[in-house]
Amino acid sequence: MTGSSGYRNLAPKTKNLIVAGGLTAFVFGVYFYTMRAVGGTDELQVAIDKYEGQKSKQEA
């Protein structure tokens, strides 16, 4: 099978680097998209602070 399928002619280590780079780019893309979509509101942090405040009142 000869032709323009250049990917098959690469060394296995090069293929692994291409796959690893693609997966890394995908993971970071999903991470940054999620962070942007969740965005500026730190609802979880506010809830944690409120819980910590209630817990310290109960202990006092």
Q: What's the helix and strand layout?
A:
Layout: H1 12-38, H2 43-59
Describe this structure in words.
With 60 residues, the protein is mainly α. It has one domain (2-59). 73% of the residues lie in helices and 0% in strands. The protein is built from two helices and no strands. The radius of gyration is 24 Å and the shape is rod-shaped. The N and C termini lie far apart (77 Å). The model has no long low-confidence stretch (mean pLDDT 80).
Specify the number of helices. 2
- Please indicate the percent range of residues in DSSP E strands (runs of 2 or more): under 5%
- Count structural domains: 1
Helix/strand order, N-terminal first: HH
Helix content: over 70%
Q: For the CA atoms, what is the radius of gyration?
A: 24 Å
Question: What oligomeric state do these chains adopt?
Answer: single chain
Uncertain runs:
none
Mean pLDDT comes to 80
What class do helices, strands and sheet pairing give? mainly alpha
Sheet with most strands: none
Describe the global form. rod-shaped
What structural keywords apply?
single chain, mainly alpha, 2 helices, 73% helix, rod-shaped
In short:
The chain has 60 residues and is mainly alpha-helical. It has helices spanning 12-38, 43-59.
